[in-house]
């Protein structure tokens, strides 16, 4: 999902005394992880929607890497296999047009964002294998399955209940009691707690030199980093 407000702003990040220019044409989203087995796929997506999100869409390998690393930090109590619903599905009649595994992987799987699946190499061995019933096939991401493969995906019955991952685009407020984590493709080494704040581990930080003279005519968003956590966000024209 696109970063709404700060689109087309030039961003400057001060880190380790260096000026970093990061593009504000960035993709930034926040995510919440719902470790419950109360909801089927559609209900999971509905729950995300009531929070102004959707089930997660991983359009790029970078975003997939981020989600994969985040689920490594969780031991699901609701699902012993640590399989999480993601926002990927396909209509049954679409998938059944294809016979070979290669073709089924490339069939019209789509994300809740509307984009097509491009990370075809992340299927588990022999997946998808039509584990669905009813009219759709739905997909889960596995923490570590087969053993040693992290974040690989497989299709499951949409009427099974799994934990699930919601995604919120940059313009949305996310309920902090759900411990959201955020990710931007232009600052992927920094752990974010929202798309407008930058939270930097204290060890990384050295005191920054001074203030920035913004000589550009573009609106500038400045993340100025102080000694401990990072934090002020100011904006000037
Ligand atoms: C980040 O995502 C945006 C929007 O999809 C794209 O325009 C930009 O090129 C991406 N930047 C990087 C560094 O991948
Ligand atoms: C969802 O967005 C609407 C419209 O911006 C807003 O009124 C509502 O409070 C938001 N809901 C949540 C749970 O954030
Ligand atoms: C999850 O479980 C494993 C194995 O029991 C353990 O080593 C690990 O520390 C646990 N991780 C968390 C985040 O609780
Ligand atoms: C935040 O989420 C928690 C847990 O789902 C819920 O109890 C609480 O009402 C939510 N707060 C808001 C402001 O939506």
Which structural traits does this protein have?
binds 2-acetamido-2-deoxy-beta-D-glucopyranose; four-stranded antiparallel beta sheet; disordered N terminus; 237 residues; globular; alpha+beta; 4 helices
| Biggest sheet features | 4 strands, mixed
Helix fraction, binned, reads 10-25%
Number of strands: 12
Catalogue the ligands: 2-acetamido-2-deoxy-beta-D-glucopyranose
Radius of gyration: 20 Å
Structural class: alpha+beta
Order of helices and strands: EEEHEHEHHEEEEEEE
Extract low-pLDDT stretches: 1-10, 199-237
Helix segment count?
4
C-alpha geometry: globular
Q: What share of residues are in beta strands?
A: 25-35%
Q: Overall mean pLDDT score?
A: 79
Tell me the span between the first and last alpha carbons: 26 Å
Strand order of the largest sheet: 2-1-11-12
Structural features, described:
- With 237 residues, the chain is of the alpha+beta class.
- Helices cover 13% and strands 28% of the residues.
- It has four helices and twelve strands.
- The chain has helices at residues 41-50, 61-71, 92-95, 101-106; strands at 10-15, 18-23, 28-34, 54-55, 83-91, 110-111, 136-142, 153-157, 164-169, 181-184, 220-225, 230-236.
- Strands 2-1-11-12 form a four-stranded mixed sheet, with no helix packed on it.
- The structure holds 2-acetamido-2-deoxy-beta-D-glucopyranose (4 copies).
- Residues 73, 75 line the site of one 2-acetamido-2-deoxy-beta-D-glucopyranose.
């Amino acid at each position: 999902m696109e970063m709404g407000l700060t689109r087309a702003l030039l961003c400057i990040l001060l880190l380790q005394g260096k000026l970093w220019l990061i593009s504000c044409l960035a993709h930034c989203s926040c995510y919440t992880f719902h470790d419950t087995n109360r909801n089927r796929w559609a209900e999971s997506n509905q729950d995300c929607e009531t929070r102004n999100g959707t089930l997660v869409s991983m359009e790029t390998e970078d975003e997939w890497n981020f989600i994969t690393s985040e689920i490594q930090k969780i031991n699901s109590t609701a699902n012993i296999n640590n399989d999480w619903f993601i926002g990927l599905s396909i209509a049954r009649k679409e998938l059944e047009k294809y016979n070979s595994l290669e073709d089924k992987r490339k069939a019209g799987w789509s994300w809740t964002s509307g984009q097509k699946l491009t990370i075809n190499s992340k299927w588990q061995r022999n997946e998808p294998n039509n584990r669905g019933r009813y009219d759709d096939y739905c997909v889960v991401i596995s923490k570590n399955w087969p053993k040693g493969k992290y974040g690989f995906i497989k299709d499951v019955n949409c009427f099974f209940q799994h934990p699930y991952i919601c995604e919120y685009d940059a313009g949305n407020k996310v309920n902090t009691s759900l411990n959201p984590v955020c990710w931007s493709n232009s600052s992927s080494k920094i752990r974010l707690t929202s798309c407008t704040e930058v939270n930097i581990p204290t060890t990384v930080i050295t005191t920054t030199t001074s203030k920035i003279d913004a000589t550009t005519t573009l609106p500038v968003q400045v993340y100025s980093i102080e000694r401990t956590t990072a934090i002020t966000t100011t904006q000037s024209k």
